[in-house]
């Protein structure tokens, strides 16, 4: 386990020199606020799905203070062996997709972090809940709002917590813009623009397989613009319109969206204009406009460092490893009932899927769809 000093050393030199005041006021992660070495409770986590993102989370969790990687669930025996060696994971904490229900008998695991293809999240989270363990699942939480509701119900019934891996909800630049908006520094906010996209490679990957991904760019990357519109504007939309463009039907088959533009309307009268794409590069920008000022994050959702500016100048915040902070904060939510500034619970995850359901419906019908989140 690392010390506060090790953690702080990870901040960039320039960022570390800056005041933490505004960030602390917004929501400093527990690890940044503590002045003493941490000796409180630790969330013992098993990761399910040892792929690209699971590997990143595992690595980052090595620097978390309140969360510790203690187990794995995988369909690939060779990966299990590698991870056992790398992270010192005992045999008794290793499972596959057939036998992981047995985790209910394992008192050394508190929570399972599901980091598998989108279509698997629902059933896997329900099995985790039935095994009596807290569930963290990656975005998108499920393939649609109905799946999310099933997951919420299962976790409620089992009396376990359900969180969605929205790492940006704990990210300092993001939280600083949210603080500015809340403190009225931008005046009345009335416009958000969210651009989320990249050119996806290998056509055979699961992200381009409707069965496993549940859709295309919207499920994977467009969800950042949806989610961002809500936390940046600080309200939930009441209508959506959407349009799809497909230039490569060979690569982006039926049900796998390539590029979608969509617009959201909010109760205050604010509007959002967003773009989700698997075929346009360098799309990672949030822009929030108010009567008194603007804030821009670009990049806004990558692994960092994020970069931001307002009408008054550059935004300066500490640069952190998103997943390290996320796991510390999620441990505090699960173990200490901490309330995050921006929620990461199942209801929060389901809101984005309700919007995605409506986006697909709007594309199909050509109509504006009313939203009740
Ligand atoms: P990968 O393909 O890299 O890894 C997925 C892993 O899931 C596989 O390695 C495999 O692990 C397991 N798996 C189980 N069943 C299947 C199957 N049928 N096909 C393929 N893999 C399977 O995907 P990512 O790690 O990039 O994405 C996983 C999830 O994480 C997605 O929901 C994605 O949206 C989310 N994600 C979130 C990010 C964020 O910033 N919050 C960033 C990237 C991804 P094993 O061999 O161990 O069984």
Structural account:
There is one protein chain. With 373 residues, this protein is α/β, with parallel strands linked by helices. It has 2 domains: 33-166, Rossmann fold (3-Layer(aba) Sandwich); 172-317 and 346-370, Dihydrodipicolinate Reductase, domain 2 (2-Layer Sandwich). It contains 13 helices and 15 strands. Strands 14-13-12-11-7-10-9-8-15 form a 9-stranded mixed beta sheet. It has a 6-stranded parallel beta sheet with strand order 3-2-1-4-5-6, sandwiched between helices. A hairpin with a 3-residue loop joins strand 11 and strand 12. The radius of gyration is 20 Å and the shape is globular. Residues 49-54, 74-76, 79, 115-118, 120, 138-139, 165, 167, 206, 212, 220 line the site of NADPH dihydro-nicotinamide-adenine-dinucleotide phosphate.
CATH superfamily of the largest domain: Dihydrodipicolinate Reductase, domain 2
The general outline is: globular
Summarize the main sheet: 9 strands, mixed
Instruction: From the 3D structure, determine the CATH topology of the largest domain.
Output: Dihydrodipicolinate Reductase, domain 2
Instruction: Please give the alpha-carbon distance between the first and last residues.
Output: 40 Å
Specify Rg, calculated over alpha carbons: 20 Å
**SSE string, helix = H, strand = E?**
HHHHEHEHEEHEHEHEHHEEEEEEEHHE
Number of helices: 13
């Amino acid at each position: 386990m690392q010390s506060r000093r090790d953690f702080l050393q990870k901040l960039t030199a320039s960022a570390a020199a800056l005041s933490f005041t505004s960030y602390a006021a917004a929501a400093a992660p527990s690890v940044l606020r503590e002045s003493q070495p941490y000796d409180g409770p630790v969330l013992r986590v098993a990761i399910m799905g040892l792929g690209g993102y699971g590997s990143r989370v595992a690595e980052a969790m090595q620097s978390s203070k309140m969360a510790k990687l203690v187990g794995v669930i995988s369909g690939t025996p060779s990966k299990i062996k590698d991870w056992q060696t790398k992270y010192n994971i005992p045999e008794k904490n290793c499972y596959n997709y057939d036998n992981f229900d047995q985790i209910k008998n394992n008192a050394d695991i508190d929570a399972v972090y599901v980091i598998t293809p989108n279509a698997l999240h629902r059933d896997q989270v329900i099995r985790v809940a039935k095994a009596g363990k807290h569930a963290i699942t990656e975005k998108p939480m499920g393939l649609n709002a109905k799946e999310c509701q099933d997951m919420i119900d299962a976790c409620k019934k089992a009396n376990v917590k359900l969180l969605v891996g929205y790492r940006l909800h704990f990210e300092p630049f993001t939280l600083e813009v949210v603080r500015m908006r809340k403190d009225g520094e931008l005046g009345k906010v009335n416009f958000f623009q969210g651009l989320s996209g990249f050119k996806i490679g290998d056509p055979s990957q699961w992200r381009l397989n409707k069965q496993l991904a549940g859709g295309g760019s919207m499920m994977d990357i467009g969800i950042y613009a949806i989610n961002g519109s809500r936390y940046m504007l600080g309200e939930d939309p009441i209508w959506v319109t959407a349009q799809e463009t497909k230039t490569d039907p060979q690569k982006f088959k039926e049900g796998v969206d390539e590029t979608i533009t969509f617009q959201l309307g909010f109760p205050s009268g604010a509007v959002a204009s967003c773009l989700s794409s698997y075929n346009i590069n360098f799309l990672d920008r949030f822009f929030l406009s108010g009567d008194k000022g603007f804030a821009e994050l670009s990049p806004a959702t990558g692994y960092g460092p994020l970069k931001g500016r307002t009408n008054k100048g550059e935004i300066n915040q500490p640069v952190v490893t998103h997943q390290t902070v996320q796991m510390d904060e999620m441990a505090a939510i699960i173990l200490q009932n901490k309330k995050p500034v921006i929620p990461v619970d199942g209801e929060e995850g389901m809101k984005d899927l309700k919007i995605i359901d409506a986006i697909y419906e709007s594309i199909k019908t050509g109509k504006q769809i009313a939203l009740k989140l």
